[in-house]
Amino acid sequence: MSPRAAVMFPGQGAYLPGVLAERARHFPRAVDVLDTIDAVAAEHGLEPVTPLVLERDATPLEDLLAKNSDQLDLAIYAVNATAFEILSGLGLQADVLVGHSFGEFAALSASGAVSVADVAHMACTRTAAFHRADPAEGGLLALDIPAWRAKHLVGLLDDPGLHLAIDNGPGQTVVSGHLAALEAAEEVAVKLGFRATRLRARYAFHNPLLHGAADIFRGATADVPLAKPRTPVFSPVLSRYVRTVDDVREVIGQNMVAPVHFYDALLLLFRTGTSVFVEAGARQALTGIVRSSLPSAALATPLLPSRGDIDGIITSLTEAGFQVSWRRTATGPVPDVTSDSEAVPEARPTASGQETLPGRDGVLVELAELYAQDLGFPVEMLTPDIDLEADLGVDSAKQLALFQRVRTQYGLAEPPAERRVRATTLDKIAELVEEQRR
């Protein structure tokens, strides 16, 4: 019997170039989702998002935010919706769906409350609303403190534009505001000994500053056909289950401006019997929140923590206690891949007698463990895209010393200096490891 499972959908920043490259093609319904979203993008005069999620050398998050942000929400939704179809294709049935920030739209479409095409239209309409309202430039600041402490910090600064935006648990609260307010909050937080990290976002999400854009968005989406969810949905914005069409419309209408009570949602789901949390989206931010916020009896597993193949997904779900049955479809007829809770065999020596080296996902796991141990950060914090210097404050000398350990571990030659200097995330370091091993 499979455990009671919540499927989580991440929001802002949950984008990784080419994350579906070796996965979506095996599932016809996943391909249909991408085709649908591309068709909607064309209706709104946007480029297709499929290349962003299927090509490894697609535009990275930083460049997408700076040069083509209109596609970002659509790309995030495309990954979330496709990930859910992959889960369904593998036979996993969610007991409850929960979205984080913009991820609530994916939770609603996965529940049957709104169609994939209509969510894609809403993602484009949402972007257009920002352009029309033209809110002041703002952003999000993550603090390594619980919500009650962050609330005191916001009160101390007494800036009407600074608000508590997201409660992720005892170890992280996110505040939002205009740039000057965020700078003041960051300065005070650092002086008090807290870690403050700017998140990659252009606007002050979950803040009344966006009421203008939210009003435009609500008016433009008032006629979107909605239905009651067929699968239970818990909304961190509403802090309750979404039961009616009016609830669905309220989630959609409040998503930009209302705070996200994600920690409360996790606690309620865990206390009412949910024991496994599967993250259906790029990276593993929500997985890290579950692991750091809930008791050890709660198991969290990311579906797409990095680029990789379908076998990595099957392994993750198997280790979480799910029975997975799947037939490979993209490469011609092959035997069924049937997985239960048995352990995955360890890598065996190759014909040359040398130990099989780990694949990309395995390298990322090993790198996260190595860097976490040396730097003193929780391993779940070392996501593939986190920037060692910009996000964690690791200076270039320390990065060089750590990379020398990586070279020793994998037996690598010294790479060109310019390549090594540019490898400031674990994903880029793993890419460099792969290049040097060829």
Structure notes:
The structure is a single chain. With 438 residues, the protein is α/β, with parallel strands linked by helices. The chain has three domains: 5-134 and 210-326, Malonyl-Coenzyme A Acyl Carrier Protein, domain 2 (3-Layer(aba) Sandwich); 138-202, 2-Layer Sandwich (Alpha-Beta Plaits); 360-437, Non-ribosomal Peptide Synthetase Peptidyl Carrier Protein, Chain A (Orthogonal Bundle). Helices cover 44% and strands 13% of the residues. It is built from 17 helices and twelve strands. It has helices spanning 28-43, 50-54, 61-67, 72-89, 103-110, 116-133, 147-157, 179-191, 211-220, 245-254, 262-271, 285-293, 310-319, 360-375, 396-410, 417-422, 426-437, and strands spanning 5-9, 96-99, 138-143, 163-169, 172-178, 196-199, 233-235, 240-241, 276-282, 299-304, 324-326, 337-339. Helix 12 links the parallel strand 9 (276-282) and strand 10 (299-304). It is globular, with a radius of gyration of 21 Å. Residues 331-356 have low confidence and may be disordered.
Structural class comes to: alpha/beta
The overall pLDDT, averaged over residues, is 87
Just give the CATH class of the largest domain. Answer: Alpha Beta
Given the C-alpha coordinates, what overall shape results? globular
Number of β-strand runs:
12
DSSP strand (E) fraction? Answer: 5-15%
User: How many strands, which pairing sense, and closed or not: the largest β-sheet?
Assistant: 6 strands, mixed
CATH topology of the largest domain: Malonyl-Coenzyme A Acyl Carrier Protein, domain 2
Note the run of SSEs as H and E. EHHHHEHHEHEEHEHEEHHEHEHEEHHHH
Helix content: 40-55%
Protein name: [acyl-carrier-protein] S-malonyltransferase
Domain Carrier: 358-437
Keywords: Acyltransferase, Antibiotic biosynthesis, Transferase
Enzyme class: transferase
